[in-house]
Amino acid sequence: MLELQKSEIQSLFDLSAGAAAIRQAYIAQAQQRVQVPDVTYLGFPEANGDCHVKSGYIEGTEGFVVKIATGFYNNPAQGLASSNGMNMLFCAKTGQPLAFLNDGGWLTDIRTGLGGALTTLALARADFRKVLIVGGGLQARHQARCLMHLAENRPIAFAIWARNPEQAEQTAQDLRSDGIDANAACDLQQACGQADVIITTTPAKSPLLQASWIRAGTHITAVGADCPGKQELELPLVLRADLCVCDLAAQSLAHGEFQTAAAAAGLAVDEVISIGDILSGAHPGRTSDTQLTIADLTGLAVQDAAVSLSVYRAAQMIKAKEDILT
Amino acid sequence: MLELQKSEIQSLFDLSAGAAAIRQAYIAQAQQRVQVPDVTYLGFPEANGDCHVKSGYIEGTEGFVVKIATGFYNNPAQGLASSNGMNMLFCAKTGQPLAFLNDGGWLTDIRTGLGGALTTLALARADFRKVLIVGGGLQARHQARCLMHLAENRPIAFAIWARNPEQAEQTAQDLRSDGIDANAACDLQQACGQADVIITTTPAKSPLLQASWIRAGTHITAVGADCPGKQELELPLVLRADLCVCDLAAQSLAHGEFQTAAAAAGLAVDEVISIGDILSGAHPGRTSDTQLTIADLTGLAVQDAAVSLSVYRAAQMIKAKEDILT
Predict the structure, then answer these.
(1) Under an 8 A CB cutoff, do B97 and A84 touch?
(2) Is residue A73 in a domain?
(3) Do A129 and A93 belong together in one domain?
(4) Which residue from B1, B37, B92 is facing A40, i.e. has the nearest CB?
(5) In total, how many domains does chain B have?
(6) Do A173 and A257 belong to one domain?
(7) ipTM value
(8) Which residue among A72, A86, A93 sits closest to B47, beta carbon to beta carbon?
């Protein structure tokens, strides 16, 4: 069994290969060529913590994954990270463990970044240039870096808005040090009105973006809402969308960004398009430059399987090369 | 994070400490001071394989466990073990991984052996001496060794019966080489009639033991049936029991030995006593030497938590001693 720590996983991970694997995972999910059992939950209220176990298998691939992720929100007071995680990859032909990826949650962050970037590229206008990122945390950086990587040589200008202006400035500065064109935005409404693409990455529990702020033709990728009670977009904005897209409708409507539209306005599963169907060409996606498109991503276990397989394949490739040389 | 392979786990494992931990786990389960989410299942029909993910936490202990177990039944043709497994232990206060126990399924075998032995000792007549083990596989050996260990200096004579007489002889021989009094039995009916205790460990899909073969006062521990369709005891035998005991009634009645009695004779959850309630003294258990008692064990995630914690504590103790010495 291969065993890799976070730093080894980071150096092995190839963004393009990871994105290709996630693209296939989204398509497989939309075509129901996957196994994704219900998520297992354990709660530790005294420690303000929880644990989620997600399992996923993309049929036809060499392995299935079991991901164990914990969030213990009193940890930072003790100098510990609040999130932890690991992905275990098993052979789908023999059940033997293939890889223990002790990534500490990094693979989840990067698969969320890549999923967002793939979705944004699939749904934004062909000529998009101005991208507003709402939020100044880790996922803001991942969304920007992954989008920049997948967009190749396209000139993208990022604006970063966060509740805390210093955090927005720090995020912009970090991205600039990677050679990315990024600046902090002070006024969210103004920034929304200038953006071709908006990516929301916050844990907001009341809507940040208003319908009237958004231009026709804008695409919004919302990755923040992942449990009941979270919401980044006000209801009229979601209702104004010409196209509502998600990674998995059942999740989006139950506990993602579309939960409010489902509960308050009856948004139904068959009104929300799977990103996998757009990536496969089964659905045309955006058909005009004036459409407002909104994608809500809640994260899939098959994305975890995809990135775990991607790391495993990279390690196998290196091993094969070494075997030839020795 | 502590990381241990099977051989290290085996040498660290203390049967008495493991049994004490499982006793507490049974009691906690009966008192509902546990978290045991639904088991996650993935199936791989093309490879004749499956994967179960079990999670468990005994409230108040230092850690929770996620166990990943696979069974791929075409493996032996390729020279591979059909079963694989690992237990991941996490801190219940911070969510951080405490131990990766790559036990290959051994901890599951031993917790089943210890659970069976604890149950047998709790329910057998005080003067029991003759123990019949039905089945000649790995679990037959574990049940005998664990019972022998927990019974301390009691003189127990084991009879081993298996469909294949050579397998019964081999099992008896293996036990004798451990200094255990064990002999193969040729005739199951006769062996049943002589036994004070019967432990059934087979994957039988039609009943092996008949009601008329069993003496009053006998205790039976059935560990074989663990999924729909398996059955070791004929229905009239279960219905004759003065006391039906289990580790978890919902499991026993759904897919354990008591599934037939539940389906065909309406055996209900409140008619089956939890072994934890007998171990804690909340229920008196056996009250006369003429009662026929039957215990059905289907295995609990909190047993996995218990043995994982037991290994972890043993490793911590050794480390503490080493730290003092250096």
Answers:
(1) yes
(2) yes
(3) no
(4) B37
(5) 2
(6) yes
(7) 0.89
(8) A93
